[in-house]
Amino acid sequence: MTEAFSTFDLLQWMDAETRAAFKAAARVRKYRSGQIIYMQGDTGAEMYRLLSGSVNFTVNRPDGRELVFALFQPGDCFGDSSLVDDDVRPQTVEALTDLEVEVVGRADFNRLRAAHRSFDDALLRSVTRQLRLVCAFYEDANMNPLSVRVAGRIVSAALSFGAQHSDGLRLTIPLSQTELAAMAGASRQSVNKVLQAFQAEALLRVEYGGLLILDLEGLKARMTLPD
């Protein structure tokens, strides 16, 4: 049987021995929806691997503006960067749903690095993938119009958290227009105008507290600029 891995799952790059050592070092912890796992600026003492549920990453500006940087799903690992460079947490991580995580403390993290080359290789691959994500995010924010950015954020959420229903594709996580605006780096009012245009094209339907996706392929087509 082939194990399914997510985008930021360190285990996908580990050999079997290292995976077993990671599992032995980890302990399971539960969080409730809306609970903060750690705050931007906190000292990092643990890394996490999602077993169930989802989290979002936000960066808060001194002027009060907030940017939702990423949504993580089961299998994804986070919190490891502060254990590598001993710097503070670069984002705030909040539980979007009730969830369970595997937690590895700093001492066990360092032991894994010292004893298993495969663990260090996995960390390097994860950092590289995160850097690629940041570069893509920067390019998107600075070169694409808002409609393209909004379509991209919706499609990304749908591919990770979409569940098929008779009337369309529904997200299994809450995603308000305010949160979508924070993901796209725009005002809620501007994002609402884009959503209304998408609704007029029968790409989606705006509902209370979320979206019903009617035409995923159509939204994918809106992620690119016309020639």
Automatic annotation (TrEMBL):
GO cellular component terms, A-Z: cytosol
Listed InterPro entries: cNMP-bd_dom, cNMP-bd_dom_sf, Env_Response_Regulators, HTH_CRP, RmlC-like_jellyroll, WH-like_DNA-bd_sf, WH_DNA-bd_sf
Keywords for this protein: DNA-binding, Transcription, Transcription regulation
A GO term, aspect molecular function: DNA-binding transcription factor activity
Segments forming domain Cyclic nucleotide-binding: 10-112
Domain HTH crp-type: 144-217
A family per Pfam: cNMP_binding
Gene3D superfamilies: Jelly Rolls (2.60.120.10), Winged helix-like DNA-binding domain superfamily/Winged helix DNA-binding domain (1.10.10.10)
Recorded superkingdom: Bacteria
Protein name: Crp/Fnr family transcriptional regulator
